[in-house]
Design brief:
Elements: E1 2-7, H1 10-23, E2 32-39, E3 42-49, E4 53-55, E5 60-66, H2 73-78, H3 83-91, E6 96-102, E7 107-111, E8 120-124, E9 127-131, E10 142-143, E11 148-152, E12 157-161, H4 173-188, E13 192-196, H5 201-212, E14 216-224, H6 228-240, E15 244-249, H7 251-264, H8 270-284, E16 290-292, H9 297-301, H10 305-314, H11 316-328, H12 330-345, E17 348-350, H13 356-364, E18 372-374, E19 377-379, H14 382-391, H15 395-398, H16 405-408, H17 411-421
Parallel strand pairs: 13-14, 13-16, 14-15, 16-17
Antiparallel strand pairs: 1-3, 1-9, 2-3, 4-5, 5-6, 6-7, 7-11, 8-9, 8-10, 11-12, 18-19
Helix pairs in contact: 4-13, 4-14, 7-8, 8-12, 8-17, 10-11
Length: about 425
């Protein structure tokens, strides 16, 4: 959690930062630290969770991160002293992160390549403010774009890119994708975590590789009694040899979730509320710190029906364009909602399909390997299914068709009814 205010005097900065932190109280879950500084660009107050603040000789870092390949990343960032060095440090990272780098002369806000970790900001005549959640800063706040830095020195602010995806030629995509999936799940799945498990391809790959690497995963499936997700998850769990916890929801439980989520979510459509409710309820029923989900896989590997429809009607170029736009909007349309809902329920979200190495590999794979014409029509996620087959997943799960969780859980239908009844 980050709550930052730069204002004209220290008292005002402290009051605003405290107000921002109070609005994000569900993120605290333990001790916090408060640091106040007089800088050349204004009076600064920063409040963050204990362990997410590092005070170096000349630099202060506030950073939330999941970077198992470089666990000392914040400490390393604390040693750099200019923007070019910040960009180089971030460019060498895998994983997910967001935060603030502060010296006496400059404030730099930063965010990971895909926007997995939230970071919002607002700039006014009174100063500049940052938080993990947009709503905590008011209606004029915006998200910092993924792969970007915001530079502020008191006179002006500037947003610059530190990241552009590295697209490369992939000689053997099926083999390479299987290898990278195995590596990413081994590194980024905590030793103990909960998994949003529908029994579909994405969550089955995560569960299978977690089991293979000795992780302890609590598989959770959310839905109304008798829904498709419960039956699919039960069947998949049996094939994989894992236990799954069925969480049967009813209208009262969903109505309570909606009442919480409507206060915080930037978009409140039935679809957004249905998906957010799944994450919120899963998180509320989790005993683990982390909730793992397959978010991003559909956009990266061609999982949505609209991609297949576009391919069939206009050709692969149009389908690829839709996928590209959805990937670029992940931080706005998916991750902000799902991360926030998980946090409100008490868990930190991890979406391993979005780790940079896997993300860039997916972007490098030919779209015609994601959407594949077969004798039975257009197969979605074809290359991901081939990689899953190579990994050793049961054929029944490799070939399982795609159905969106908001529908297969039964939540979408009931939420429409609940909203129409209020």
């Amino acid at each position: 959690m980050i709550s930052l205010a730069v204002s004209r005097d220290l008292g005002e900065a402290e009051a605003v930062a405290s107000e921002i932190a109070g609005k994000q109280g569900h993120r605290i879950r333990g001790p916090t630290r408060k640091i106040e500084l007089e800088t050349k660009f204004g009076s600064l107050c920063l409040i963050a969770r204990e362990g997410e603040l590092i005070h170096g000789d000349n630099v202060l870092i506030s950073c939330r991160h999941i970077t198992p390949e470089d666990p000392e990343f914040p400490e390393n960032l604390c040693r750099v002293e200019d923007v070019d060095s910040i960009r180089r440090t971030l460019s060498g990272l895998q994983g997910f992160f967001s935060g603030a780098w502060i010296s006496r002369d400059r404030l730099v806000l930063f965010r990971d390549h895909v926007g997995h970790m939230p970071l919002a900001y607002r700039q006014t005549e009174e100063g500049i403010f940052a938080a993990s959640e947009r709503w905590a800063l008011g209606g004029a706040a915006g998200q910092l774009q993924p792969g970007s830095l915001l530079l502020f020195d008191g006179r002006r602010s500037e947003i610059v890119r530190w990241y552009e995806p590295r697209i490369k030629r992939v000689a053997d995509p099926e083999r390479l994708l299987a290898d990278v999936l195995r590596k990413v799940m081994d590194l980024y799945l905590p030793s103990e975590c909960s998994l949003a498990f529908s029994g579909g391809l994405d969550s089955s790959i995560i569960a299978y590789l977690a089991l293979s690497s000795g992780k302890k995963v609590d598989a959770l499936v959310i839905g109304y009694e008798g829904c498709l997700d419960h039956s699919w998850a039960s069947e998949a769990a049996s094939l994989l040899g894992i236990r799954v916890k069925e969480i049967i929801v009813d209208d009262e439980m969903v109505r309570n979730a909606i009442q919480v989520l409507e206060k915080y979510l930037p978009r409140k459509s039935p679809m957004d509320l249905a998906i957010a409710s799944i994450f919120y309820i899963a998180s509320k029923n989790s005993s683990k710190k982390f909730l793992v989900a397959g978010q991003g896989s559909d956009e990266l590997f061609g999982g949505y029906r609209k991609y297949a429809d576009a391919f069939e009607r206009w050709g692969i170029g149009r389908a690829a364009e839709l996928m590209r736009k959805d990937v670029e909007q992940l931080h706005l349309m998916n991750l902000e909602r799902d991360e926030l809902a998980s946090s409100l329920g008490g868990s930190d979200l991890i979406a391993p399909y979005l780790v940079k190495e896997l993300y860039e590999l997916a972007l490098s794979i030919d779209p015609e390997l994601k959407l594949r014409k077969t004798g039975e029509g257009i197969a979605r996620k074809w290359i991901l299914r081939k990689a899953a087959e190579r990994l050793g997943l049961p054929r029944e799960l490799v070939e399982r068709p795609k159905k969106a969780a908001q529908y297969s859980s039964g939540l979408m239908k009931r939420i429409r009814f609940i909203l129409s009844s209020t």
